[in-house]
């Protein structure tokens, strides 16, 4: 996990919002046809719709979050599902807790 990538990902309010939604996906997203919201993650199309952005814009946000290690992605059929990485979030908390 690279510190620079983490802080770049967290510098955007939309990415912070996505992380908050992914913490409790059942509360923030409707049931999906494919994939379990908790086990598999949330379909990118649902995140884009809720965020009111285009799919390419969402892809850029998710790329940054995935590169930072705060989110993981999984392909199911033709869709990409995103899940918050609790291990990545724990590492972030540890990093911030050390005072850098």
List its traits:
single chain; 100 residues; alpha+beta; globular
Structure commentary:
By secondary structure, this protein is α+β, with helices and mostly antiparallel strands. It has one domain: Winged helix-like DNA-binding domain superfamily/Winged helix DNA-binding domain (Arc Repressor Mutant, subunit A, Orthogonal Bundle). 57% of the residues lie in helices and 14% in strands. It is built from six helices and three strands. It has helices at 3-10, 13-23, 25-28, 44-51, 55-68, 86-97; strands spanning 42-43, 71-76, 79-84. The chain has a three-stranded antiparallel β-sheet with strand order 1-3-2. Helix 4 crosses helix 5. The longest helix is centred in the middle third of the chain and has 14 residues, at 55-68. The relative contact order is 0.20. The mean pLDDT is 92.
Low-confidence stretches: none
The CATH topology label is: Arc Repressor Mutant, subunit A
Please report the first level of CATH classification, the CATH class: Mainly Alpha
Total strands: 3
Task: Give me the side-by-side strand order of the main sheet.
Answer: 1-3-2
């Amino acid at each position: 996990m690279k510190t620079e990538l983490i802080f770049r990902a967290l510098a955007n309010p939309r990415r912070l919002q996505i992380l908050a939604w992914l913490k409790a996906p059942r509360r923030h997203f409707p049931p999906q046809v494919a994939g379990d919201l908790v086990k598999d993650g949330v379909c990118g199309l649902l995140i884009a719709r809720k965020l009111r952005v285009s799919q390419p814009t969402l892809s850029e946000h998710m790329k940054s979050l995935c590169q930072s290690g705060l989110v993981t992605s999984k392909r199911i059929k033709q869709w990409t599902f995103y899940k918050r990485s609790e291990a990545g979030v724990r590492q972030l908390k540890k990093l911030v807790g050390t005072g850098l």
